[in-house]
Write a structure and sequence with these properties.
heterodimer, A: about 210 residues, alpha+beta, three-stranded antiparallel beta sheet, two-stranded antiparallel ribbon, 7 helices, B: mainly alpha, 9 helices, 3 strands, metal-binding (chain B), Mn/Fe_SOD_N (chain B), SOD_C_sf (chain B)
Chain lengths: ~210, ~270
């Protein structure tokens, strides 16, 4: 058990800082970070099938397209092609955001045996109680925001760096939380339909939150 | 029986008033002027999706013009059921609930409701429900069992005129669908100003009617439309739609209807 958590922590550290590969041109490419747990470890809350497809297909696609867009950006910058540089911004925002968000997402989840689903302790627990009254109130707020989101997007619990307050925020499509201000993402929930559809398609996501 | 106007295309999405004998009888005493913009019906039961409320439905969940399993194997019965009764149904319910509370929005036709709630790019909260009801009505009718293949006659001529060839159009449609970020729809529209067909993509619930264009067919690229059948494989979904599902008959009818509003010129009649 201790060994497992050790490996988990190591993988966690690696997942954030590594995933880089330096190419001979000096261009960084990104690769798919490993999950700190098995695909089936989050059952019955999230099925292994969903985790596998989500990780190996969706996240991988974002990384592949992100690398492609970065390479094209590199070429465009070298050539001084401003219109190409600007045109690539939406692809970078979408695919890069997808990579960032999903990397945070995998870490936001944890199998029950490793503490997943438990109430937060320490300073986070106090901060939640202070701002939202109780953990249930926070969960309620995040669920409502998630369900109200139209289209695809994410629900976040973030920390506002300036006001030092907890905020619940939503972002559209794959926009990362930084696009909404000086916020540090603490917890992210993917409310794109692909995140729950194979399991919860009838309830349209309410139980999933 | 007073004669009240109804649209000549009973299956067009702009017509929310099905004309049946028994339906008409209920409104004998109501002056016909009030009728065309309002559709009232008794509550329908849908296996428990409808909650026990006393809301009068202003808009109904329109049934697709084919059996739910007739699009197999390209769109499974399960997908159609969940998509239609679950998602489309939820939009209809949400819309009806909003209309029951609203004094301003009550009484519009669905087309006008979509345009009004879009508010020129600053949509009100009801836009999503209204537009999604419209989009899904249009979507079910844009497909048919045994569809796909190529369009004929005038439709094909117009496509070849505006895209060069049918293959060009098909590739453009597929490419547009694949490059859509997030949730949205892909459309073949007849542009009113330019008087030509074009392929456009829209985000979330937006529909080209808000810009005054006339849609001919659409494809739902929200993940719920294909995830159960194709999971991540959007390309296969788009190919299945183009090869086996799209209803060119419906497209031709809509184009013919549109020609009443947009002058597309004389048809090319071959000289003997």
């Amino acid at each position: 058990m201790a060994l497992r958590s050790l490996i988990c922590r190591k993988t966690l550290g690696l997942a954030f800082s590594s995933g880089f590969k330096l190419q001979f041109r000096g261009l960084q490419t990104f690769s798919l970070p490993d999950l700190p747990y098995d695909y089936g470890a989050l059952e019955p809350a999230i099925s292994g099938e969903i985790m596998q497809i989500h990780h190996q297909k969706h996240h991988q696609t974002y990384i592949t397209n992100y690398n492609k867009a970065l390479e094209q950006l590199h070429h465009a910058i070298e050539k001084g092609d401003s219109s190409a540089v600007v045109k690539l911004q939406s692809a970078i925002k979408f695919n890069g955001g997808g990579h960032i968000n999903h990397s945070i997402f995998w870490k936001s989840l944890s199998p029950v045996c490793e503490g997943g689903g438990e109430s937060p302790h320490g300073s986070l627990g106090w901060a939640i109680d202070e701002h939202y009254g109780s953990l249930d109130a926070l969960i309620q707020k995040m669920s409502t925001e998630g369900a109200a989101l139209q289209g695809s997007g994410w629900v976040w619990l973030g920390l506002d760096k300036e006001s030092k307050k907890l905020v619940v925020e939503t972002t559209a499509n794959q926009d990362p939380l930084v696009t909404k201000g000086p916020l540090v993402p603490l917890l992210g929930i993917d409310v794109w339909e692909h995140a729950y559809y194979l399991q919860d398609h009838v309830t349209v996501g309410f139980d999933y939150d | 029986m007073g004669c009240f106007s109804y649209y000549l295309f009973p299956s067009s999405p702009t017509c929310q008033v099905p004309v049946t004998g028994s339906f008409a009888c209920q409104f004998k005493t109501i002056p016909y002027k009030q009728l065309p913009t309002l559709f009232k019906q008794k509550k329908k039961q849908f296996n428990g999706f409808q909650r026990a409320s006393r809301v009068v439905s202003y808009y109904a969940l329109k049934t697709p013009p084919y059996k739910l399993d007739s699009l197999e194997p390209y769109m499974s019965k399960r997908t159609v059921e969940v998509h239609w009764k679950g998602h489309h149904g939820a939009y209809v319910e949400g819309l009806n609930k909003a209309l029951a509370k609203s004094d301003i929005l009550y009484g519009y036709t669905l087309d006008d409701l979509v345009k009004v709630t879009y508010n020129n790019g600053n949509p009100s909260p009801d836009f999503n429900n209204a537009a999604q009801v419209w989009n899904h009505d249009f979507f079910w009718e844009s497909m048919q069992p045994g569809g796909g293949d190529m369009p004929e006659l005038g439709m094909l001529e117009q496509i070849e005129k505006d895209f060069g060839s049918f293959t060009n159009f098909r590739d453009k449609f597929a490419e547009t669908a694949l490059t859509l970020f997030g949730s949205g729809w892909v459309w073949l529209v007849l542009k009113r100003e330019e008087r030509r067909l074009e392929v456009v993509k829209t985000q979330n619930a937006v529909t080209p009617i808000v810009w005054g264009d006339i849609p001919i067919i659409n494809l739902d690229m929200w993940e719920h439309a294909y995830y159960l059948d194709y999971k991540n494989d959007k390309e296969n979904y788009i190919n299945a739609f183009m090869d086996h599902l799209v209803s060119w008959n419906m497209a031709m009818a809509r184009l013919a209807h549109a020609e009443a509003f947009v002058n597309l010129g004389e048809p090319k009649i071959p000289i003997a």
